[in-house]
Specification:
Structural class: mainly alpha
Order of helices and strands: HHHHHHHHH
Largest sheet: none
Number of helices: 9
Length: 238
């Protein structure tokens, strides 16, 4: 009986009963590469389905994802990175002015350098920004039993949708030459408190107000942290 090359357990089936490794590995071919791309991007899980569900029922679907059913939606970190990449590509392709996070335009200063890094890595920048927003959401909605990391997962979905709105607005503005980025930003500002409030308690107006306040304070805290880090770095090393 052959032994599993991973854990040395005898194998009498197609997969190792101990670690689950396949008894015989398939050759790497075109189908394998296609499957890996689909797996990484989670198209097989339904990225369009995820967008549709987050567009119409964001609170309900994210709550289901956190509470147990994590196979219906694209993984949140992957989702926000992909949508942020789409926004960056759309902005770069049409060479539009980027106003999403545009502070400290002087790249010779640390503040300008950090801001430039965020604009070049919106996926990671949005996750960092989400940390600040999550802090305020946790504070405002502390009576709910969601921990900090669960709120951060919620923000990955919500902010990912925001990046998608801006990417579509940037694309349309580049194609039809109408100032649609402002409309995309307005949709983002409306969508954020609506989806967050729906997640916590959609029947209370205060949920939407607190969500909007958390978003504004989180953004201000994020920008303030950039200025503070840049100022301290310039003071110590320049």
């Amino acid at each position: 009986m052959p032994l599993c090359p991973n854990c040395s357990t005898p194998i009498d089936q197609n997969y190792c009963p101990n670690c689950g490794r396949a008894a015989t590995l398939k050759r790497i071919d075109g189908h394998y590469i296609q499957h890996e791309i689909e797996h990484v991007l989670h198209f097989e899980k339904g990225i369009l389905f995820t967008v549709r569900e987050l567009l119409f029922r964001p609170g309900k679907n994210v709550k289901e994802f956190i509470n147990g059913d994590r196979n219906r939606l694209v993984k949140p970190i992957i989702f926000i990175i992909i949508t942020s990449l789409l926004y960056s590509l759309s902005n770069h392709f049409f060479q539009q002015k980027d106003g999403y996070v545009n502070i400290g335009s002087d790249k010779s200063s640390s503040v300008g350098a950090i801001s430039a890094w965020v604009r070049s890595h919106y996926g990671y920048g949005n996750i960092l920004m989400g940390v600040f927003i999550a802090f305020w959401l946790k504070l405002f909605f502390r009576k709910y039993q969601y921990n900090f990391y669960e709120i951060l997962i919620l923000l990955c979905f919500v902010m990912g949708m925001g990046m998608l709105f801006l990417a579509i607005a940037s694309l349309l503005e580049g194609l039809i030459k109408l100032p649609l980025m402002q409309a995309g930003s307005a949709i983002l500002i409306v969508y954020f408190p609506w989806s967050i409030g729906q997640f916590f308690n959609g029947s209370k107006t205060s949920s939407y107000v607190k969500a909007l306040c958390a978003y504004i304070l989180g953004m201000l805290s994020f920008v303030g942290a950039i200025y503070l880090i840049g100022f301290l770095y310039d003071s110590m090393f320049k």
